[in-house]
Every structure is written in structure tokens, then in C-alpha cells.
Amino acid sequence: VESLALFIAEENKEAKFSSLVPLRASGSKPPVFCLHAGGGHVFFYKDLAKHLGPDQPVYALQRLGVDDATQAAEDIESTASHYLQEIRKVQPKGPYSLLAYCFSISISWEMVRQLQEAGDTVSVIAMIDSSPPLQVRKKTNIDRLHGILNRAKTLDFSFIKTIWTTRIKRPIKAKWTSLVSDKETIQFQKKMRALNVMGAAYVWKPLPVKVTLIRSAPFLSNERKNEKFSKWNDLALNGVDTHIVDGHHRNLFNEPEVKQLAEQLGQCLNKEHNNNQARRPDKADDPDATGKPDKFRAVNKNGTLDKVITSQEVNSRD
Length: 318
Known about the structure:
- By secondary structure, the protein is of the alpha/beta class.
- It folds into two domains: 2-136 and 203-317, Alpha/Beta hydrolase fold, catalytic domain (Rossmann fold, 3-Layer(aba) Sandwich); 139-202, no CATH class.
- The chain has eleven helices and nine strands.
- It has helices at residues 2-14, 46-51, 76-87, 105-117, 141-153, 158-180, 183-201, 223-229, 231-235, 257-279, 311-317, and strands spanning 20-24, 32-35, 58-61, 96-101, 122-128, 211-216, 240-245, 295-299, 305-310.
- It has a seven-stranded mixed beta sheet with strand order 1-3-2-4-5-6-7, sandwiched between helices. A two-stranded antiparallel ribbon has the order 8-9.
- The model is unreliable at 4-14, 283-295 and 301-318 (pLDDT under 50).
């Protein structure tokens, strides 16, 4: 019995939760790290990883606490710090490539800030059809009243529908759902609300970085969305590189839309990778430019460090 208990304990130790999920660990290119959306899960990225091709390593970062056994982080800053620890298991130093969607754009932005503060670099920060808040501080009742009066002056009464949806319909629906839903659904909704609170508390600051913004075509005619997306111009001090893809926001990672998304993203990743290679100093001046294969770190299926491998070794596994 004692031996069996020790065996089970060892198995549980091996199965320890990790935020880092390897979707494709093989490939000679620098990896791209995809951050979870509002639900905390990451497996909707699997088709994107497939279409990026066999030479592009793809890792995803799932939320702490998504397994109900680990303690979730309390704010964006500590979440970003934890994710940086995770990605450094695979890539000890930059330039890094990050991808964010919906909720995770605030985490990715904070990751960039912390990387730059540590003297490291980011090659690509891809924001997928997502925008920062129009204003940092939370709206007050006075702000809302001014907004209503301004719309009334222009005979724009769409705010009535907004009030009905946000102040009456959604609260009633949420209350009803909490009464009839199963335990798992209630827990999921609780996690979503916690993430929303974290995101609302985050203070955005401009950073010297270029944002790769991939937008869905249907949002182009939405003035409110365009106003939100324009906020990237204020935050990304090195500019915004915008690309348009077909498909609705919610379907971008599904077939067949994900194929076009992967094509655009792949072009951006390859372009920046080639630019980084071109900017490298001559071998005589660069102690790291020895002509040896690039080194990355292999992570096993449990998210733990396996060993340091070269790109040639990775390719030989395919």
C-alpha cells in the first residue's frame, strides 16, 4: 500500500498543472506564444497551429486556475509575470512573438512592458481583432449622463437599447442562468467575471512597440469598433501594422476562416524573423553568431522542461 501511495504521489507530481501548452514543439523558427481568451482555455488555437505549418513552433498559455486546482492570479501584472516565466522555459531570451485575442490583449501588453523593463525585446505582438478600452478610468454616472444627453441632442436614441441590454436584460439573464445552470457552468461564469474585473482594473500605458493588428472584415463598417481600434495608434508608439481577413470575430479560429488568419500571421512572423536575422551583427562582432544552429528548449506534454535542443535536432524529429 505504501508503495502504491508513493507511485500515485509521483504521478500527481508529474501531472502538475502548467500554463504552457505545446501545440507544436517542433520547428526551426522562433516560437509564437498564444494567450488564452476570456474563458481561459487555449485549444481553439489548434487549427491555427496546424495552418502555420510544420516549421513554426506554437505554444499556448492557459489561465492559472482553469483546472480548478491551482490558484488564479489576482491581477494582470502578476499574470503577465507568471506567463513570462513559462515562456522562458522554451525561449530564454527574445525577441519574442506574442499573440493575443479578446481578454488577453491586456496581459500581452503587460508582458511587453515587463520584457522591455528587463531589457528584452519583442519581435511581434499580434492583436487579433481586439482593441483596448477607449478610456482607462471607469465610467462614472456623470460620464454616462453626458453620453446620453449628447446622443439625445443628435436624435440618436440607440442608448435606450443599450440601457435595456446592459442594465435590465443581461442582469435578469445572468440571475436566471445562475438558478438553472449546473455547477460547472456557474464556476465558468464566475471565472469569466473575475477576468473581467482584472481587465477593467489594468492601467494601459503607451509602449515603444509596433502592434500587428489583424482585423475581421465585418467590423470595418462599424464606427464604434473603428473608434476603439484607433486607440492602438495612441498606445503603440512604433506604429500599427493592420491586416484584414474575412470571417466574423467569433469564427476567425474556426475552419475555413482560420486558414486565411494563419496565412496573414505567418507572413508577419516570417517578415519580422527575417528582419531580425538581417539586423544581427557580423559574426566577428557577435559572440553568439557562431554559425551553430539556434537553440530552443523542448517542453514535454506536461509542460515541464525536457532539454535544450537545436533547430537541426528538432527538424530531424519530423
